[in-house]
Design brief:
about 130 residues, mainly alpha, 3-stranded antiparallel sheet, 3 strands, about 10% strand
Length: about 130
C-alpha cells in the first residue's frame, strides 16, 4: 500500500511539472504566433479535420507464420505425463522452430496451456501433459 501511495505521489509531481511546462508554453504561444505572422485565433469551423493519428511502434515486417498452432506445437513438444513450467514451455517451443514476434510470448503460452484440454494445471505456473 505504501509503495502505491509513493508511486501515486511521484506521478502527481510529474503531472504538476508537465502542467507548469504547458502553462509556460501557452503563455508564450501568442508571442510566437505574432513573430511567425500566424493569425492569433482561428475559428474551429475553418480548420480542416485532422487525419487519424498513427500508432507508434508498429510492426517492422510481416507477421510470422507457423505450420501448426501454438497449442499443437506445445502438445508435440511436451511428452505425456511430463510437468513443465510456462517459461520452459515457451523456450521449448521456440527451440523447436515456432516463430513469434510477441513481446509477451510466455503469457500467450500460459493462456494456451490453461485452455488446452491436453494440459492439466498442477500448480501455479506448472502444467502436466495428459493423454489425449
Amino acid at each position: 500500500m505504501h509503495q502505491l501511495e509513493a508511486r501515486a505521489a511521484a506521478l502527481r509531481e510529474q503531472i504538476a511539472a508537465l502542467d507548469h511546462e504547458l502553462a509556460e508554453i501557452g503563455a508564450s504561444l501568442p508571442a510566437l504566433k505574432a513573430a511567425v505572422g500566424a493569425p492569433a485565433e482561428r475559428d474551429a469551423s475553418d480548420t480542416p479535420a485532422a487525419p487519424p493519428a498513427r500508432r507508434k511502434g508498429g510492426r517492422s515486417g510481416p507477421r510470422p507464420k507457423n505450420d501448426v498452432s501454438l497449442a499443437d506445437a506445445l502438445a508435440t513438444a511436451v511428452e505425456v505425463r511430463a510437468r513443465i513450467t510456462v517459461g520452459e514451455a515457451a523456450d521449448l517451443v521456440l527451440q523447436n522452430g515456432y516463430k513469434t514476434s510477441s513481446r509477451k510470448f510466455a503469457m500467450a503460452v500460459a493462456t494456451t496451456l490453461a485452455k488446452d484440454p491436453r494440459f492439466r494445471r498442477v500448480e501455479r505456473g506448472v502444467y502436466e501433459r495428459v493423454a489425449g
